[in-house]
Amino acid sequence: MYLNCHTYHSLRYGTISIEDLVHQAVKHRATTLALTDINTITGIYEFYKLCKVHQIKPIVGMDIRVQHEQYYIALAKNKEGIAEINRLITSFNCDDVSLPKQHPDVNNTILIYPINNVPDVLGEHEFIGIRPEEISLLIQKNWKALLHKMVVLSPVTFTTKKEYNLHRILRAIDNNTLLSKIDSIQVAPPFEVMKPVSEILKAYQHYPQIIENTENIFRNCHFDFDFSTPKNKKHFTESREEDKKLLRQLAYEGLKKRYPVENEAAQKRVERELQVIDELRFSGYFLITWDIVRYSKSRGLMHVGRGSGANSIVSYCLGITDICPLELDLYFERFLNLNRKTPPDFDIDWSWQDRDDILFYLFEKYGRDHVAFCGTNVEFKYRSIFREVGKAFGLPKEDLDELAKNPMALHDDHAVIKLVQKYGMLLEKFPNQRSMHACGILISEEPITHYTALEMPPKGFPVVQFDMHVAEEIGFEKFDILSQRGLGTLSDAVKLIERNRGITVDIRDTSVSKNEATANEYLSQGRTLGCFYIESPAMRGLLRRLKCDNYKTLVAASSIIRPGVAQSGMMREYIFRHNNPGQFEYFHKVFEEQLGETYGIMVYQEDVIKIALHYGGVSAEDGDILRRAMSGKGRSLAALQKVKDHFFESCHKLGHPEKLSAEVYRQIESFAGYSFCKAHSASYAVESYQSLYLKVHFPIEFMVAAINNGGGFYRTEVYVHECRMSGGKIQVPCINKSLYETTVYGEEVFLGFMHIEKIASKIARYILQERGKNGEFTSLGDFVKRIPVGIETLQTLIFVGAFRCMGKPKNELLIEARMLLVSFRPEYRNPSFFEEPPQQYALPQLKRNPLEDAFDEIEILGFPVSCSPFDLLQTRYRGHVMARELLQYHKKQVKMLAYLIARKHVPTKKGTMFFGTWIDAEGAYFDTAHFPDNLTEYPFQGGGCYLLLGRVEVDFHFPTITIQKMAKMPFIPDPRYAEDQEKQFEIHRKINEDVSMTWRAPYPQDHEIGLPRKQM
């Protein structure tokens, strides 16, 4: 009798999980159950599976509502009915087609109208839902005549009084109102709970026809689903055979290009892979991916194929990836094997500027009926829970901030706050809203509305109503169309080099950049700021510790820094063995045979599979479970646990020492905590090398590109500093030289208008448009006449120095600006046949402190350009030691003066510690460690310059200073406010720092690891 059940997928309305709903039905001995969430089918596939487990007949549909008004409940008679319902709601969500309040155009769907929306005439498939509390209305003559069209309507939305209160809170959150002000029409009645069937039937005992009508609906509705068949587009051509033929042809064409000299090993590998691809019927998947890449190249766009797809030589020959799997001995079975039932997963990156071009191509090529983004369920998180629930209870913003940022133990012991905590905790793991997956695209064989309704978020691409896990379960495999800033930097740098130097660099030719001598030298010194993936303080430190000077070591470094490997101690052990190759023994001969290249250390996901198979003797099937666990497709540790028993049983049979097997499994288990497959590391390493090659040989253009792509590890100021250190002569924005982005002429680098926050991008772009059309601006008056700006914008441009090309000091320009705008009229901008010469003003000479410019720049750009931060200090002291000398001071105390670049928060058992990154007065970088006890007495006090006293520790060629004392050094008072003591130090607070947060414990040191270095 349950025709209208809601779960928490009826967002901010229902309070029951799918699992709890089905368990309730089991408890009440229901044999049939209908899931009808509001305007969504998100939960129907999980619902179907659970119902089958408990031998309940599942019926699926949708409760269709607009605003708060229920139009009708739609129940699918069959799979065509689901498609009809999905199309109906998709038109509403994506095409702004109004939902018909009555008689929607459906043929395989049963419609149940609430009593307040009954059409004058009911179709054969249309019924009226009568709630138990509405039965008394049936004595009226007009309703009696419709008994043959009535069904039992006993909605389910919550389970208890407590959940009813939670439902009301959710409705208040959804309507952004107070709980006390929520309108009754926006809330379900308190009796929408699942009652025993006997109790429901008792209410309708005098109307057996209503009961019979309801049972007929149950009999006429069916939902069956085949989870085993792939739902992706099957063929790129017209058939499997044609796909196979085309893929072979393309693979062999690519083979000739990739291996100009005949290579028997490559040819054999291509043959073997093509056979597996065809057997698994994945030829179409490869060809669709190839076609996307082909289009990308035709548009001159850069892409990087990464992830496990780079294990495939066919991918390499098709141009999807640029990693030769033979060179790195990449394990094809990690990507594709006959035990794998789901399609391969290609991850392809484009520049963040180009990705939409690729997306538009996909939607046009395969049709909007067949392409959509994967969805995600955004859950209520700790902070959002307390903010949202607290707001519903009417708490002020200050209280909401305190609740959100502090743990519950520190919350006030107040009655209302106790209620917020009580109901807030119930919302943990509840879906709060649906969103789009960052990169996952589904391309279906059937119209995608056969499986889901679509939604249209602000980005303008349709999104399915389920997430990637459900997509995979029902037979979809997503295409990952990713974007990143690193590729934007590469692409922009190449264009700048051609424009500025007339040199064409084919950065796609990886043989040019990979293992280039000077790039390797920079790499070993950690001089990689601005380079993709290898610019963070931790990565630069690792490169120096390894003296990394070649591609293969960089590939390993890209993986060992990942949290799983590092946290287990294997990163530390790898560094030791790399630097001391004669001071260790392999755990076991299998480790020497399988992992000789990485000193017997498991570095990549493939290594785990190799050791599990060759040392642990586990089956290929268990190996695939490991693969899925490590790639995040399964529930990491839970998936690994399935293999654990088999592993130890097998190790015992093979006679391995128990202690060694336990250590090996500990290492295997750590890979569930984020790690890379070797192909993924290799892809990253290639892009890192491409970046580094440009940085080494074209440093100014490369750093300008990094500034413009703004997505690196550091703030803009740091990239500007690095550009200056690379030889760039940095200039503040100029109305006659600057573009919207930062640009370069020879060695002169002009910051772009994009860095002036107070200038609207519309005005900035208009300046460029006008300058391009009618030439450079000849005076301030000429600028005012041609550009529609007010006094505030004009003053900002003057203060930042954008009019210095006029040869007048800022003071004079400010007076002139005010005089110009006092009597200026917009009609003066109209062109005139006789142009009057600009009026000349005799202005008094005004003195100006040269350092005033620096404070203007800090206020407008966030950092000084015309001088160094050190020039603004009250002291002339610059420290006893410079960063370049630190290697000579191992175990010695040093005193340094430094400017704070970044600090990283790391929790420990004793409290928070930080790792700092600084520049000295010469502009060189160095690193510090700040322990919890020291931070109590010598805390960070925001951005700026500090005097540091500490002890140098050189760890495998990399110096770090453990701080003993630290004091922030005062800058000079702001000379612009010499007469205003309150404002003299106001702008100093705008000096920035980069703070990154991590909740992982610090990586263990040698004495904490205890990894065996002798054979066990």
From TrEMBL:
UniProt-listed Gene3D superfamilies: 1.10.150.870, Metal-dependent hydrolases
Molecular function as annotated in GO: 3'-5' exonuclease activity; DNA-directed DNA polymerase activity
Catalyses which reaction(s): DNA(n) + a 2'-deoxyribonucleoside 5'-triphosphate = DNA(n+1) + diphosphate
InterPro entries listed in its UniProt record: DNA_pol3_alpha_NTPase_dom (IPR011708), DNA_pol3_finger (IPR040982), DnaE2/DnaE/PolC (IPR004805), DNAPol_HHH (IPR029460), PHP_dom (IPR004013), Pol/His_phosphatase_N (IPR003141), Pol/histidinol_Pase-like (IPR016195)
Domain named Polymerase/histidinol phosphatase N-terminal: residues: 1-68
Enzyme class: transferase
UniProt keyword Transferase, yes or no: yes
Keywords of the record: DNA replication, DNA-directed DNA polymerase, Nucleotidyltransferase, Transferase
Pfam families recorded: DNA_pol3_alpha, DNA_pol3_finger, HHH_6, PHP
GO biological process: DNA replication
EC id: 2.7.7.7
SUPFAM superfamilies assigned: PHP domain-like
UniProt keyword Transferase, yes or no: yes
NCBIfam families per UniProt: polc (TIGR00594)
Entry protein name: DNA-directed DNA polymerase
Native organism: Chryseobacterium lacus
